[in-house]
Fold:
Amino acid sequence: MPLLQLISRRLLQLIGVLAGISLVTFLLVHMAPGDPARLLAGERASAESIAAIRAQYGLDLPLWRQFLTYIANLVSGDIGLSLRFQRPVIQLIEQFMWPTLFLTGYVLCLAVPPTVALAILGARRPGGIGDQIIRLVGIAGLTIPVFWLGIMMSRFFGVSLGWFPVSGYGTGFTGHLHHLFLPAVSTAIWLVPVLTQSLRAALIEKTTADFVTAARAQGATERQIFWQTMLPNAVLPTLNLLGVMVAFMIGGAVIVETVYAVPGLGTLMVNALLGRDYYVVQGLTLVFAVSTVLITLAVDLLTAFIDPRVRF
Amino acid sequence: MTGLENGKPPLLDVRDLSVTFGAFAAVKNVSFTLQPGEILGIVGESGSGKSVTCRAVMRLLAAGASAQGSVALDGRDLLALGEDELCAIRGRDIGMIFQNPASHLDPLRRIGQQVAAPMIRHLGISKREGWQRAVRLLDDVGIREPEKRARSYPHEFSGGMKQRAMIAYAIGCQPKLLIADEPTTALDVTVQARILQLLKELNRKTGLAMILISHDLGVVADICSRVVVMRGGEVVEQGPIDEVINRPSHPYTKLLIDSQPGRRTYGTTATAGGSAPLLDIARLSVTFGAGRSLLGGIGGDHSFRALDGIDLTINAGETVGIVGESGSGKSTLARSIVRLNTPSGGTIRVDGQDVGTLAGDALTAFRRRVQMVFQNPYDSLNPRLTIAEAVAEPIWRHGLADRQTARKQADALLETVELPRSLRDRKPRQLSGGQCQRVGLARALALKPQLLIADEITSALDVTTQAQILELLVRLQRERALTLLYISHDLSVVSSLCQRVYVFKAGRIVEQGVASEVLTTPQNPYTQALVASLARLPTERTAPHSQSVSHHAT
Structure:
């Protein structure tokens, strides 16, 4: 079964990638300017207390032994202690992760159906009036900066009309839906045009594909041709693009989360950076890298599921 | 026409069919009829409107085209039908197969599913039943292990198998009419012969009527009972095949028949024999390594031997042909001679010099002596250069003249290959395939080579253009005392042009000898199969051809 072979091969490769990621995140903190021990101890600490902290955190050991300790800790799920909150980083990330994941899923739900609809509409008559309008509006959506749109929407829908809350995450599923609506919409507004352009181009290319002509010659209706032949063949580039975008959203939700004060990973990242909370930054980098890898893996497997030609 | 003679109503009656793309009329007032159980051939060159005619019958034309006239299938005018009624007829009453089976199969779905889809759609059978019938159909069209192969995807099939699958896909609902648009053009000759045999058997067993579109009069003559000859969107002649071929009334039909390879011999000048060999190849092997995977190295040796111990000599002034099917290594040989591929063993000597050890000035001098013309005339010319620039480029690049003089020489060369002056400032895309190939020839001749390697230079061209290019080649060879290595998949072209022939199969030479002898009395079983699969005009059919469908595709 080539599909199973592919999965096992990709999982094997994953080990190497994860090792690389952990090395880079480890070096990231050690290459950051400043002495972590001095940071921990504070500006006015004496030389003895700095040395004591160094010994306590194992910072006096050779680099490779520090790395081994780091790896051992990683394996047991320990990615350090937040200097500011004095709580394990893993707990912090777990707490802040859900709003971001919820937001990402929300954006997907809001972005994918209009993408498919608009791409079909545009590809039906390339260069027609509908296609032109979709493209112009799409370009407008792409060029409006997210932070500006966010501020405008929160002022208008949140403050003036009072329809949606302008900050926080809410409680319960409907609460989340209500609170995250504006952030999700403002993200979807630039995501939809990107995906639409990609899917539209692929669909137009497939309308003239030989196998579409062949399907037509076999008496398939236009509807069957579209759903069974054209869309599966056209969807792959867009699917890959979507994967990149989702990974980007998990790591790059900073702006939207800051504007709408969503307690997500982006907010945590900004606060950790401002507070020089190095172990939180390290932990987040690790999480972002791993989630990117996992999403890429998921997209690749989905691609292989759709397209038999890449299954080896 | 002939349809009404025996009183039966025709199955298909095309009357005054015209197709226009905007202001351009691709098909003008075409009329023909087809009787049930008959095989009708439509012959013409590219741009003659033969494919457009058949797509108009199926109503498969692009959105910008409009068709007038009438196309009646069993009395129903197809041009007047609505989309729903059309879908009920396509695939049910009319099946269609295409030139390139690889691009006409959906790459994402299993062969069995694709073959079953029209039956499930039109006959209202269950998916399971459809699958079982698909497996039976695949068996019928000669695919080995049909149950296993039905689960395969198109990319796991060879070209011949894909075309068999396409045929199964088209005949599943037992249509009354099968339209075959150049069904064998993309296939090797031995595979072509088997596919034609399969179509003939289908016609004989089930009475399936067919329209066979082809540029190859030989193929049409092999299988059809009547033929329609098209040119420039019009029917120039039609009638029973024997009549058209033996007593063609239209000059174009005569030209088409005369252009058939093997119909004429091009009087290549025989060599003053005994001279030292110009090209001497000894025990040449070329190996391609397979792509290594990241964790690979477990699966053992995946390398592929494209050439395996080739011995070959060409004397100065000789014309030598190499024949073989795709993958036989003939192009690899050509590329090895001009050092585009690195041999893994053996030697190539030109005039006694080992080509592999050449470097610096000696290599440049060698490049001048050996020139190559490539298969695809468009891809082998720089699209940004005018043709005069393209021909001049090698002259000044090799420092034989300054750019100004090179341009003048290029003009002279274009004249030599019979290209009108007015074309000299055109880009390759603005030329026809035949004109482009003339440019390719002129460019190769620009350096006054001794040895010219022609790799399938006519296989992308129409048959009349092919005949012209071959004549030009012979004239140039005579005038310039060229030594010619002519590579082709077409045994009849090679044997009419060359003095000696080497037959390649899977990287080895299976037969060699004087061209006419190889063609008439082939010794090796493979060469015999090759000769037998030549689709030639009936008047000169010599070799017995009977290959049953049970020769499974590979």
